[in-house]
Design a protein that fits this description.
Layout lengths: L4 H18 L5 H8 L3 H29 L1 H21 L3 H29 L2 H32 L4 H4 L1 H15 L13 H24 L4 H23 L13 H29 L5 H7 L1 H17 L5 H22 L10 H24 L6 H35 L6 H9 L7 H32 L12 H5 L3
Helix pairs in contact: 1-5, 1-6, 1-8, 3-4, 3-5, 3-9, 3-16, 4-5, 4-8, 5-16, 6-12, 6-13, 6-15, 9-10, 9-16, 11-14, 11-15, 11-16, 11-18, 13-15, 14-15, 14-18, 16-17, 16-18
């Protein structure tokens, strides 16, 4: 039993981290009232967390390799718990946004080091089991976040959603100290400062641009300027990594077709998860569920993910990643297609259940398989690099999915309402804002918007499945071994 305590420590931290990405959603009205916050401030309470996660995940993985994963994981828990206390004590919107940004710093380090700790603690069938349970924990956390947030907010206050992180952080830190041996590097680490700065510039600008595109439009000067800055950051990052003796990302990995295909599958799977944002809007604005009930309606996906992750992580650890990852994408695409065909204006929440179950199985099959494939492709001293790359691509996939699918959702709704209501824009705003409506034409428009989102997601998943079946090797992709000197320096 003791051998699974490290898994408990990692899953506790990951559960807390993922819940905090969604738990705030249902508390935003109470936060706005309590802090007299504007709509823009409330949006940044959500967006700053996503922005920091995207900017720092890869860098955090590299720091874990260099400074020791146990040390960085403990530090990330300290930062996350401290930032949660500041969030709970916030007396202004600015203080809350700043504290959420610090939470993102701790969260980025926590997420990638937790993956790396599992990858280096367990091997073979045990690694498959651990990755399966960890993946299932993430899936459940994402689904129950709104329910958890709604219960705490209604029974206590919005501040409770942050206070609860403090005891969880302390328990997780204690378990981490007990379960993991110190892994302080023997050589003095050499940080890739140029890589860290340029990647933060590129990823931060891209994520901010995607956030702004939904508000200002894809062709606005601000959005295009941020995309141009992101492109410049990518160029500078590539130059920095090629020149640095110990780069935080081995660029030769991206020239490996198999590794690149696995990263594409990560983006597609995360994109599929983004469709749940619009499912939640549909459940509340069209079906008329409360936020808590809407969260409960998504539990079939969480349950399917949990079962599939725990079963396949243990049973399929020796199966080729080409098979498992391709199967995962096919299931996600099929589930999205089912919902794209079944849901209509008069549907109840139950219409989404068949597709959600299939999507959940697909996510459950894919997450442990992808994680295991990444760790098998890298030497142990580069586990942080691999987990950082995977987490970064997942974060980008989710941000890109919300941005692009948001455009599809709103445009389809708007086109459906033109000529049928007096003010199409106001009606569209009611649907996309999650406000309940009883007008039949709005129900039809909302259903059309959601089915378009699902069908677009299905198309991407099926294309990604074709790519993975063609390019992912039967065995995990390998990387050239590091030179002896580099290996001694951890990179």
């Amino acid at each position: 039993m003791r051998k699974w305590l490290p898994l408990v420590a990692v899953c506790l931290g990951s559960f807390m981290l993922i819940v905090d990405t969604t738990v705030v959603t249902v508390a935003l009205p109470e936060i706005g009232t309590g802090l007299h916050a504007s709509l823009s401030s409330l949006q940044w309470v959500m967006n700053i967390y996503t922005l920091v996660l995207a900017a720092l995940t890869l860098s955090a993985g590299s720091l874990g390799d260099l400074l020791g994963r146990r040390r960085v994981y403990l530090l990330s828990l300290t930062v996350f718990g401290g930032a949660s206390l500041l969030c709970a004590l916030a007396n202004s919107p600015a203080m809350l946004v700043a504290a959420r940004g610090v939470q993102g710093i701790g969260g980025a380090a926590m997420f990638v080091t937790s993956m790396a700790l599992l990858g280096t603690t367990y091997e073979g069938e045990e690694r498959g089991t651990a990755m399966g349970v960890w993946s299932a924990t993430i899936g459940v956390a994402a689904a129950v976040g709104p329910i958890f947030g709604g219960l705490l907010t209604q029974s206590m206050s919005w501040r409770a959603i942050f206070y609860v992180n403090i005891p969880i952080s302390l328990v997780t830190m204690l378990l981490t100290k007990i379960c993991f041996a110190a892994d302080t590097p023997q050589q003095r680490p050499r940080l890739d400062i140029p890589g860290i700065v340029t990647f933060a510039l590129a990823s931060g600008a891209l994520t901010f641009g995607l956030i702004l595109a939904d508000d200002k439009g894809w062709t606005s000067n601000a959005t295009l300027g941020l995309f141009a800055l992101a492109l410049l950051g990518v160029v500078l990052f590539i130059v920095a990594e090629r020149r640095h003796p110990n780069p935080m990302l081995d660029l030769s990995l991206m020239r490996n077709a198999s590794f690149a295909a696995i990263m594409l599958s990560t983006i597609a799977a995360a994109w599929g998860f983004s469709s749940l944002v619009f499912t939640s809007l549909w459940l509340q604005s069209v079906v008329g569920l409360t936020p808590i009930k809407a969260g409960l309606a998504l539990l079939p996906l969480a349950g399917a993910t949990f079962v599939a992750s725990t079963v396949t992580g243990k049973r399929l650890h020796n199966v080729s990643p080409r098979v498992t990852i391709t199967t995962s994408l096919l299931l996600i695409g099929t589930g999205c297609a089912i919902n794209g065909l079944l849901i209509h204006g008069g549907s109840s929440w139950a219409a989404a259940v068949p597709g959600l179950l299939v999507i959940g199985v697909g996510v459950g099959v894919g997450m442990p398989a992808t994680g295991s494939a990444i760790f098998a492709s890298l030497p142990p001293q580069r586990a942080g690099m691999g987990s950082g790359a995977m987490a970064t691509f997942r974060q980008f996939g989710q941000a890109l999915g919300v941005a692009v699918l948001g455009v599809i959702f709103s445009d389809v709704i708007h086109d459906h309402l033109v000529g049928k209501v007096a003010d199409p824009q106001s009606a569209e705003d009611a649907l996309t804002g999650g406000r309940r409506t009883t007008l039949g034409v709005l129900h039809d428009a909302g259903a059309h918007g959601l089915t378009s989102v699902y069908l677009a997601t299905a198309g991407l998943a099926l294309v990604a499945a074709l790519v993975t079946s063609s390019f992912v090797r039967k065995k995990a992709p390998s990387v050239p071994p590091a030179a002896p000197k580099e290996a001694a320096e951890v990179h």
